[in-house]
Design a protein that fits this description.
By secondary structure, the chain is mainly alpha-helical. It has 3 domains: 6-68, no CATH class; 80-295, Hypothetical protein af1432 (Orthogonal Bundle), CATH 1.10.3210.10; 306-347. The chain is 43% helix and 6% strand. It has 13 helices and 6 strands. It has helices spanning 23-31, 59-68, 80-95, 102-119, 136-154, 159-171, 181-184, 192-198, 201-212, 217-225, 246-261, 272-281, 288-295, and strands at residues 6-7, 13-15, 306-308, 314-319, 329-332, 338-340. A hairpin with a 5-residue loop joins β5 (329-332) and β6.
Length: 353
């Protein structure tokens, strides 16, 4: 058994200390780029002392994890070099909206995202793995672009549409470059007058793109309408569903979600679970097709992560359910019990805490 926790870059435990290594796990470690791990000799049922970072895994749990485990759908992954290029590119765009290289830089970034999606046939996104910048506007733009492209792919849109939605996502907040810095960087919530100014960023962004004559009307409209709501209570036009562009309907879902889970000076980030629950409650504001495609694309609990259940048990995620993103199939680490949270009615009162 291994004598250390194997964690990912987000400090999540992928393989817990005390786990018996089988051929599958050894192959997984190799794929993670690990040349070796420390192991502990002994019988399979030797008790492992529990600490905050170390949860014992019983033999039955190990067997059921191996039996029921199914890989997550391919997720978008960005190498560090690609993240660096994207970060530099998006910062250049937002600081140089009048540049002659604006469209070229935009296309270069979008090509990088498109390649990341197509190289491994990605149809899912783990937002925790996307971070390209510490600055909110730049990170948010890349997050929204990537999620929107995955949503579009999930809907079966053509490659050209996926590409254009990526551009729309990257540039959806471009108008903020015209907002006074004292409003844009205010550490507290905006008052009504300041918020009225901030809402103009959608119009400013639309004007920036229209003046360049290098972006399609669909892209410009998406930038203009990404804060519109299908019930007509959005801005800047207050139009209802039938007058909102298809691209904007997709951007809106990604934009709301990323804003909820991202820390801002005036608010703490919400958990992914809470953000998803809020998205699911917004059926009168968000397009239902875009919402469903988003929910089927975002991975909240990657396979092999350890979660705490409401019944007090620690469990390992072995399978995600695209139809029910909040309720994967998990295996109790202490008993080996398999909980199909999405489909087993006996698990109806159990949730991931």
């Amino acid at each position: 058994m291994i004598s250390q926790n194997i964690k990912d870059r987000m400090d999540r435990v992928l393989i817990a200390k005390g786990t018996i290594l089988n051929d599958y796990l050894i192959d997984s470690l190799k794929k993670l780029g690990l040349g070796g791990v420390y192991v502990q000799e002994g019988e399979e049922d030797i008790e492992v002392q529990k600490t905050e970072e170390q949860i014992p895994v019983c033999a039955a749990a190990r067997n059921n994890i191996s039996k029921y485990r199914e890989e997550d759908p391919a997720k978008v992954t960005l190498t560090e070099s690609v993240k660096k290029r994207i970060s530099e590119g998006i910062q250049y765009l937002y600081n140089n909206s009048d540049s002659a290289n604006f469209s070229t830089t935009t296309n270069n970034i979008t090509n990088n995202l498109m390649k990341a999606i197509n190289d491994n046939a990605a149809i899912a996104v783990d937002i925790n793995a996307l971070k390209t910048s510490d600055e909110y506007t730049f990170k948010h733009s890349v997050d929204v672009a990537t999620m929107s492209m995955i949503i579009a792919k999930k809907q079966g849109l053509k490659q050209d549409d996926i590409y254009n939605i990526g551009i729309s996502g990257l540039l959806h907040d471009m108008g903020k470059s015209k907002i006074p810095l004292e409003i844009l960087n205010k550490p507290d919530r905006l008052n009504d007058e300041e918020f009225a100014v901030m809402k103009q960023h959608t119009v400013y962004g639309y004007q920036i793109l229209k003046e360049k004559n290098e972006f399609s009307t669909a892209i410009s409209l998406a930038v203009l309408q990404h804060h519109e709501k299908i019930n007509g209570k959005g801005y800047p036009l207050g139009v209802t569903a039938e007058k909102i562009s298809p691209y904007a309907k997709i951007l809106s879902v990604a934009d709301v979600y990323d804003a909820l889970v991202t820390e801002r000076p005036y608010k703490k980030p919400m958990s992914q679970r809470t953000a998803v629950e809020i998205i699911m409650s917004m059926t009168d504001e968000l397009d239902i097709t875009a919402m469903k495609s988003f929910l089927a694309s975002v991975i909240l609990y990657p396979v092999d992560t350890t979660v705490k259940l409401s019944n007090g048990e620690d469990a390992r995620v072995v399978k995600n359910n695209p139809e029910s993103v909040l309720r994967p199939t998990v295996v109790s680490l202490s008993t080996g019990t398999v909980y199909d949270l999405a489909n087993d009615m006996n698990c109806a009162n159990i949730v991931i805490e």
